[in-house]
Amino acid sequence: MKIKVFVSNLAKYNDGELTGQWFDLPVDDVNVDILDKLDLGGDSELGYHDEWFISDYEAPFSISEDGSTLYGLNELAEALENFDTIEDVYNALDDREATGCEDVYDFDDDFFDTMFESKQEVARAVFFGDIHNWLDPYIFLNGCGNCESMTEYDYQEMLNNHASEIIEEFKMENI
Fold it and tell me: One Pfam family for this entry, by name (predicted)?
């Protein structure tokens, strides 16, 4: 998964000038590969790496502009290197329920065989549910235990809307 950040000089920004550079994460060393390349107006060997912030980013989840997150963000980017999409990250989670996403299944016979004990239960769940289209690829049980179908677009939108929660759960499980 690609994470790009635009790291800016805070002192120059406060003086009315936006300066900075784009960086692809992860990097080997945040201090050497990012902060030393910025003109921070201080001696980097003495640790003056606090005069910067993230002013822009490209990632499938929210990133704060708080500069202290850059080190943790780099660590997260290392952990996410083997994942291409937020869906891949979601599928790798042990506790998907913590993300706020629906517990979605493939819309096939296995779903009905696994989730219900009788044909009457299936009939009730479908009748009171919301099956948009019998060709939808996904299905889930709503809060009342009734079936609702979901298109591929709806599924991806759900993941994207919960991307920050998915990333937070990934961090709790892996970092």
Answer: ArdA
pLDDT tens per residue, range 67-77: 557 888 999 99
Residue 112, helix vs strand vs coil: helix
Residue (of 4, 37, 1, 2) closest to 22 by Cα position: 4
Tokens read off for 160: 């994207």
Q: How many CB atoms lie within 10 A of CB 167?
A: 22
Instruction: Quote the distance between the C-alpha of residue 71 and its chain's center.
Output: 17
Buried b (16+ CB within 10 A) or exposed e, 120-148: eebeebbeebeeeeeebebbbbeeeebbb
- pTM, rounded to two decimals: 0.80
